[in-house]
User: Which sequence fits this backbone?
């Protein structure tokens, strides 16, 4: 009888060790590829929303959409047309999809959120609710994108001419925008409109103009950066530099009014403020 051949214990251990090494090499690569795919999907969503924003302006004599998300946490889904205030006659771009205690994780029912999206002024131009949500956003939230303050959102100190609905002009830069033709310096390729907060929030994304601190927290998404869209239709990925920018932005409940402490952290803030308002309203640190 011939002796049947087989693997020895040593050979089996070597094979197992090789497989473990290969897995250790491949899994991070596969995870990176998966994340890059999700980042690309998010950028496509932002691009589609930006095109809808452009089409809205095209059909409304270059007036841009009301950049605030309507907030009525206990109300039925709606996106009414304000009868007064700084958005008089301007329908909200999206309806009341945000819960009262959203910062602590409270959510409105999914069907209410979807109905609220369909009420918004931009929905006729982008009739796909999936495009309002990043694939890596908070589970259960149908919208993770926001419009920034300067794009007909909430005006901030120093950005609006008093007792009017006109943005302050500094040289050729208009801070708070009502019409697309007001965006000249910096040009449309340098002013952002949408950004990926990764969660649903009300109003518009808050950014100081005249104060060297964050207002809303930095949004750290898809690694150590963020996805944004620009007036000219482009969507792009930004990489943050500051340690505190990244660490605070990744918290489950990040703080508001965060103060930078290092040159890289200040650079992150300055870049965001300039992309939103077109310039800084103070002498930088």
Assistant:
């Amino acid at each position: 009888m011939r002796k049947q051949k087989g693997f020895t214990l040593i050979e089996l251990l070597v094979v197992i060790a090789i497989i473990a090494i290969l897995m250790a090499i491949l899994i991070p690569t596969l995870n990176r590829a998966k994340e890059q795919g999700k980042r690309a999907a998010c950028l496509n969503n932002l691009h589609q929303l930006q095109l809808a924003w452009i089409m809205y302006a095209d059909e409304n004599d270059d007036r841009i959409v009301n950049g605030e998300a309507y907030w009525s946490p206990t109300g039925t889904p709606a996106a009414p047309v304000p009868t007064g205030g700084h958005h008089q006659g301007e329908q909200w771009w999206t309806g009341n999809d945000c819960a009262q205690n959203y910062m602590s994780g409270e959510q409105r029912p999914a069907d209410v959120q979807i109905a609220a999206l369909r009420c918004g002024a931009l929905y006729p131009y982008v009739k796909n609710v999936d495009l309002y949500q990043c694939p890596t956003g908070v589970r259960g939230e149908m919208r993770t994108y926001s419009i920034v303050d300067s794009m007909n959102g909430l005006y901030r100190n120093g950005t609006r001419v008093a007792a009017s609905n006109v943005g302050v002009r500094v040289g050729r830069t208009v801070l708070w925008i009502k019409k697309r033709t007001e965006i000249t310096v910096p040009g449309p390729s340098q002013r952002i409109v949408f950004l990926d907060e990764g969660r649903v929030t009300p109003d518009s994304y808050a950014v100081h103009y005249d104060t060297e601190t964050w207002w809303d927290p930095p949004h750290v998404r898809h690694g150590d950066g963020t996805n944004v869209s620009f007036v000219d239709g482009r969507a792009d990925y930004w990489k943050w530099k500051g340690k505190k920018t990244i660490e605070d932005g990744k918290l489950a409940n990040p703080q508001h009014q965060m103060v930078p402490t290092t040159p890289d952290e200040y650079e992150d803030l300055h870049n965001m403020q300039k992309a939103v308002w077109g310039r800084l309203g103070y002498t930088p640190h």
